[in-house]
Amino acid sequence: MSAGRIRVLIVDDEAPARTRLKNLLADIDAELPNVVVGEAADGIEALECLHQLADGVDVALVDIRMPRLDGIGLAQHLAARQDAPAVIFTTAYDQYAVRAFELSAIDYLLKPVRAQRLLAALGKLPQGVPDAAALQALAPEGRKHLHSTERGRVLLIPIADILFLRAELKYLTVRTSEREYLVEESLIHIEQEFGERFIRIHRSYLVARAAIAGCERESDADGETHWALLLHDVAEKLPVSRRQWPLIKALLKEE
Q: Do residues 207 and 197 make contact, with C-beta atoms less than 8 angstroms apart?
């Protein structure tokens, strides 16, 4: 909290909707002190805003339908962050869609948002980002991108373009055929979320199954031999640990 005030980020692609929420927050300030610390017109701008706000955000009021990265997509990205704000969706969806939110136990505000409903939702804090199971129910296809922040800008990395991921300290290096990106996520989280697409070949590496071209033996400086994985589209060879080699060997035989 900021001096006892709830720090709010408003995310909506329509300026009048953002203005309405700001006015409503001002109306309920006496009952629930709050401060709007940022606004964003889509999920990418929201991620950029969160990166820039040193004091953090307590809650994000997030519209569902937005260009580039929608509300569900934003929540999926936030779910991978340890410092993520609580999320309350705002939606003009029909009653069938609203029922899906209710079944997933996700808090939402139906547009047009009313002051007392907003007050009630914010009064439930602290509450977190919707969990993986709830987001899976709303978006069964899962995340379509990872994101990387470079010089204050957020870049989306299509999951389908990723060849491999390498763990380095608190970052992941994500490799596509074109370039590398740094991503603030854990290898274990990626493995759990995308286990059907990526396979672990080493404690520090996940590789896209479709990117595997073959393998070859290599010798290190001490004369020890090990298996290295060959990939499509990049010249880099990746180490395969002894522990993972039987799994990789079986996979290569299947192909």
A: no
For residue 32, the model assigns a pLDDT of 95
Q: Which of 34-38, 73-77, 101-105, 159-163 has the lowest mean pLDDT?
A: 101-105
Q: Any alpha helices (H) in the chain, and if so which ranges? A: 15-27, 43-52, 71-78, 95-103, 115-122, 132-138, 187-193, 245-254
* Residue 212 pLDDT exceeds 90: yes
Delineate the domains of the chain, giving CATH numbers in brackets: 6-138 (3.40.50.2300), 145-254 (2.40.50.1020)
In the structure encoding, which two tokens stand for residue 96, read together? 């069938």
89-93 long-range contacts, Cβ below 8 Å, gap at least 24?
89/62, 89/63, 89/64, 90/12, 90/17, 90/21, 90/61, 90/62, 90/63, 90/64, 91/63, 91/64, 91/65, 92/65, 93/64
Q: What is the dihedral of CA 90, 93, 97, 102, to 10 degrees?
A: 30
Q: Residue 194: is it exposed, middle or buried by C-beta count within 10 angstroms (0-12/13-18/19+)?
A: middle
Is residue 246 within 8 Å of 201, Cβ to Cβ?
no
What residues have CB less than 8 Å from 179, skipping those under 6 apart? none
| Rounded Cα gap, residues 3 and 135, in angstroms | 32
pLDDT in tens, 20-78: 999 999 999 999 999 999 999 999 999 999 999 888 899 999 998 999 999 989 988 98
- What does DSSP say about strands 205-208 and 212-219: parallel, antiparallel, or unpaired? unpaired
Radius of gyration, CA atoms only, the chain: 22
C-alpha–C-alpha distance, residues 206 and 163, integer Å: 9
Cα separation, 210 vs 164, whole angstroms: 10
